[in-house]
Amino acid sequence: MTSVTTTAATELTVRDPRDGTLVGVLPAATEEQVRAAVETARAAAPGWARTDPAERGSLLRAAADRLAEHAQELAELNARETGKPVEESLGGVMAGVGTLHQYAELGPVHRGHSLRGSVLAADWTVAEPRGVVVALTPWNDPVAVAAGLLGAAVVTGNTVVHKPSERCPHTGARLGEVLAAALPPGVLTTVDGGAAVGARLTAHPGVDVLAHVGSTATGEAVARAAAATGAHVVRENGGNDALVVDDDVDPAWAAEQAATGAFANSGQICVAVERIYVHRAVAEPFLAALTEQARRRNAGGIAPLVDERLREEVHRQVAESAARGAVVLEGGRVPEGPGAFYPATVLRECTGSMPVMQEETFGPVAPVQVVDSFAEGLRLAAADRYGLAATVLTGRIAHAQQAVAELPVGTLKVNNVFGGAPGGAAQPRRASGAGFGYGPELLDEMTQVKVVHVEMPPAGS
Known about the structure:
It contains 15 helices and 21 strands. By secondary structure, it is of the alpha/beta class. It folds into two domains: 257 residues, 3-Layer(aba) Sandwich (Aldehyde Dehydrogenase, Chain A, domain 1); 173 residues, Aldehyde Dehydrogenase, Chain A, domain 2 (3-Layer(aba) Sandwich), CATH 3.40.309. The strands form five sheets. A seven-stranded mixed β-sheet has the order 1-8-7-6-9-10-20, sandwiched between helices. Strands 13-14-15-12-11-17-18 form a seven-stranded mixed β-sheet, sandwiched between helices. The longest helix has 21 residues. Keywords: Oxidoreductase.
């Protein structure tokens, strides 16, 4: 394994969001250590690019197997750093194992295309690794997301410098140790740190790809850095995903869908339901059922947010929205006691000017606006600066088709807030990012195409 040993004074202190106890302290990488990490990856890149694709796939498969062996350890560490329940954390780790296995199979068969030209010549394209990839990954599903970016980059012949979120640095560091032990030296390096370390990585002229999953503000900073260095950018950033409820659906079922979308993982999911538009004809039974869903979750004990900083932001949005006229049906208060807990919250009488409708909340909040028609719901859902995903609940095929045509998002789900086939990939739009961040198409993002033309020289030459 290639590691960056940090000795800088700047430290990352992580506390368990469930009770505030200390998880650990890690030093952040210095400027010199960041530079060394990129240089190590750059030095290893030519040899790794020349490695037979089948061998790269085999080594990635071995890395996936090592990850499976350490799954429980990583799940427990993740739970301590982020508050995500151990069983859910374990599901994320195993999803990462599956993703690595998927790329181990797809990588060796990722290829160019033959081109049709002169019958006396040969034309084709070759997919070549881009070089050094910097992967900046989030805390809300740290192993699964990292596995996708790291796996796709490594199997296509790139070397990687990975910076996990400063909110789960121990999980990220251990993940790096587990995976890098199965790979040649220099292929995968992990560095810990906060925004300063990320800025140094993204500004480094020796980086060829910047792959980022996280906030829109950071993603925009990554894009600006790439404009100066020429690095290729893949980024999935914030979302403010809408749910539109038609008048012909069962309101109790629709409330279950809304609750799942808004409250799963305490709302800390990139494609969580962030704003709800419900048809007036079913609004009252829908709101009653959604409020009951929130009460059940609160009575059963909802997991904490990742830290008190996020809780303060979530509550700010709720409190400001309530001050502007939103009615709190459930939750909406910071509980007493230790930890970063926040209750499942339902708001009605919301309007588009309120923070809970305008901003990505990233907490267990379900803000509801009543609309007079499905068309009005679509119009309001589309009027947003983000373009990650959206869901519509309707029994009318014409309305589903209308949603496909009118919602400017990368992913549209009809009648299932978290539905989707395995291997799916979408391109987020506008403030939500750009490029394919998942699926087989991510292999294309990690490579660049060379066109080759070969023909015989003239006779007698």
